[in-house]
Amino acid sequence: MKFWDIIKSANANLFRNKSRTILTIVAIFIGAFTISLTVGINIGVNDYVDKQLQGVGDMDTMIVMPKQEFGAEMGGDKPKKYEPKEQKSEQAKLSKNDFETLKEMQELSKIKPMENFQTDFIQGASDDKFVFNASISLGNKVELEAGRQIDNDAPKNEIVLATSYVKSLGYKNNKEAIGKEVTLGVTEMGTGKTQEVKAEIVGVRTKSIVQGGMSMVNNALSGKLVQINETGLPEQMQGQVFAATASLPKNITPAEITKIKTKLADKGFMGQTMDDQIGIIRNVVNGITGVLTMFGGIALLAASFGIINTLYMSVQERTREIGLMKAMGMSGGKIFSLFSFEALLIGFWGSVVGLGGAYGVGQLINQFATKNFLKGLDGLTLVEFNLSSALMIVVVIMLIAFLAGTFPAKRAAKLDPITALKYE
Q1: Between the N and C ends of the chain, which has fewer C-beta atoms within 10 Å?
Q2: What is the pLDDT of residues 179-231, one digit of tens each?
Q3: Neighbour-count burial for 52-83, b at 16+ CB within 10 Å, e otherwise
Q4: Domain spans in the chain, listed from the N-terminal domain onward
């Protein structure tokens, strides 16, 4: 019997007792459905988290700041003891010597100060002015409704506008806002005077849970805003930097990042990557979906006993048939393969139907979630599927089915042909 003949025969034998086979496939379907749905949720949420992470900064960027001991109010283990002689109210700053020290570290490159600025208002096509806040672009690419990303090397002032400002500023839609000029009001901290700065809208940002979907400015504009803010301030209060950004080597490993953080700590600094900022979110998502996946695994374990029972019954019902096949020269290996393929096919059909059911239910969940409890979280598809995860689920379930089917398959392969032919 050829390989293809074994598959056709195994598929035909499955449905000799349709009700028993279908019930076994249904049991596998439940496990496959549960696992597929939870894996889809895991993919969807983590994909959204990755997109939000891009809105915080480049994955190869590390934020460096002076080393500080945090009390309970900042997430430390216990409150810090008050020391009157220490100036605890003043935030630690990075000095010129600190930047020289950081530049000496070969693991870090493109070290730049993180500048802080404040804006008062923004005005667009309409006469109305609106309270406005923006953040500096750290070389990150954010999700856009229209336009392009910020160019930090451009000499002109550029801004990626939060989508919530578009209509308020007098533009019909996101596309119309692209290329338009807005006016930012900025106060001189030392004199109290307000200056106006022009900037071009190059993109409109999608709503985001990170930074509240805040507008972003390029280096040229941030430098101008900082300069205006510091006008009139005493020299010692100008150019204050509380943190810096540094680029890490490409394809750096977690172990290498840990070494860099240790080296920074030895020099009196603390480093934080973009991934550190949302690592807890990832762990929570993976933990919840992991527990749900365990329930699917339990269902598959129960289904595996159903496979064993189904094939044991099949072996018992086909004992004389097995004896006849052996008498005609079929080897025990081929008989083992025949029953093993029956188990594999049960796993295949159960996993495929489970995946199909999870995909259909996932689409319904996405539609309901988008219109209800996920309304306002643009870009979040709660349940997502990809080919690699789907294939992995099918292969794993087929492997479980194969292992479950080996017990009755071995029994069939070891049957004595004479004894089997006499079986009633």
Answers
A1: C
A2: 999 999 999 988 989 999 999 999 998 876 655 568 889 989 998 999 999 89
A3: bbbbbbbebbbbbbeeeeeeeeeeeeeeeeee
A4: 3-53+280-421, 61-77+90-274
